[in-house]
Amino acid sequence: MRIPFIGGNWKMNLSLDEAVQFVIDIKDKLPDPKNVETALAASPLFLESMLKANGSSPLHVTAENCFYKNEGAYTGEVSPKALSQMGIPYVIVGHSERRRYFNETNDIINKKVHAVLSNGMRPILCCDETMGRLETGDRIHWVVNQVTAGLKGISEKDALKVVIAYEPSWAIGTGHSASTTEAEEGCYLIRQTLADIYSDDVANQIRILYGGSVDPDNIVALMKQIDIDGILAGKSSLKSKEFLELANYQDLQNK
């Protein structure tokens, strides 16, 4: 019922030429989108060129972030309206690095979710737990709080367009992935939270991703978990060969 979603987030990496070549290298080697959806989130500087290189490929060229207003005196920000007009289908909002380095609050992130949806795109809403909260046993409250706040005022109809990404910050870029049990626990908790906010039916239709040091060695085990519908990779998405292994994880599973 929930189509697996394999996404990559390049963050502030690669050059324009590298980004375009990356798309050219992978676009004809991706799985059937009826079986697995694929996406790459890149700098706004690269998106238009990536879209042109992508053509009719099933790859979703995705934005890493946007502002919560369509226009105005907001120097350096990215307009969700402009992204929509370009043909961008997904936008990442609420990534832990945006929360940590740019002081984005739950309220700001909620506004971004509304802005993305109102412009006909789909948000990938990230939620996080910190190592401190994990060690003190407070992770459950933290994850639930970010999901609940991020979806404030979002209708059931629009909630079905949202993808949730569970990314414990202690596992992002550290090489230390959460165990499959920890990852599944977090995603299960998110699904139960969605059921509390909306209904079991809605919760069972929303895709929940895991992100945090995912690579070809652990993706198969992660994708076998009941509540993990996909992944959002960082470092492993920076090399075309490795990203293709992630995208075609079902081939790894059959080996």
Total number of β-strand segments? 8
| Overall structural domain count | 1
- Count of helical regions: 13
Q: What is the correct CATH architecture?
A: Alpha-Beta Barrel
Sheet bearing the most strands, described? 8 strands, parallel
Shape descriptor reads: globular
Determine the N-to-C terminus distance.
24 Å
The average pLDDT score comes to: 93
Report the uncertain regions: none
CATH class: Alpha Beta
| Proportion of strand residues | 5-15%
**Superfamily (CATH H level) name:** Aldolase class I
Structural class: alpha/beta
Strand order, biggest sheet? 3-2-1-8-7-6-5-4
What portion of residues is helical? 40-55%
Which fold does the CATH topology refer to?
TIM Barrel
Rg computed from alpha carbons, rounded to a whole number of angstroms? 17 Å
Give, in order, the helices and strands. Answer: EHEHEHEHHEHHHEHHEHEHH
